[in-house]
Amino acid sequence: MVTILDGAMGGELIRRGFAERTGLWSAKPLLENPDAVVRAHLDYIAAGAQVITTNSYSTIPSYLCKEHLESRYVELTALAGELARRAVRESGARVQVAGCLPPLSESYRADLVPSEEEARPIYANLARALEPNVDLFLCETMSSAREARNAALAGRAAGRARGLPVYVSWTLSETPGGGLRSGETIPRALDAVADLAIDGFLFNCTTREAIAAGMTTLAGLTDKPFGGYPNRMHIPDDWTLDNEAEAEHHQELGMHAFVEGALEAFANGASLYGGCCGVGPEDIAALAEALAKVTA
After folding, report:
1. What is the pLDDT of residue 108?
2. With contact defined as beta carbons under 8 Å apart, do 235 and 284 qualify?
3. Domain count, the chain
């Protein structure tokens, strides 16, 4: 059995005019237009997504402090969970909500990952805020083994009473086979969370080719569910949300290539697949349609 994930949230809200690429990014519509967040979730559900992810990627102190809102990070994270759950109720569909536990500084930047002493209390608060409205936790875009462990510990603790699954998704080097963006190997990343009984493993926010190579490695290392959700963007090494390093559009990942990559992944043992930056509801709909034909 395979599961279709949703696509980008921040990029989709930007495309619709409700968010910006700098500053508060995807947290902005939580403050100004929460209905737009619900509509984006609903569009992914209508497209065929079986899991939607909370819009909590940027409800973290390091982003919110740009507008002196860091004291509201728990409130806004809880709101992201509530809006995702509202979308599921309104859709009437059997869809799961994944609670996003994101990087606490910049994405992709293992050199900027906060210390355990700083990170773990924040992750604990994020996970507790999400817990009432989620079906699982997704520690996503983890650039290093240490970052993933900090997030996964919080998800495991917050979800213990309800037995909520915890999934970890690492972001990989843009070069296939290059390991995590930290330079660590995939086996090292797995070892770092081996005692936490993680329920599934993914790769995201990198190229389709890097994810395919990573999944090939994963298939030989675990019997847990695995998968991925690729970018349409190429991320430079020095990227941050507000600097001048421009992400480049990955021209090779058109809709056909995205769907082809997903079907190949499923054929090779993956059970979870969706999209990250630049992938929208229309791409998820194309994947759902193609998968229906294959399994008919």
Report:
1. 85
2. no
3. 1
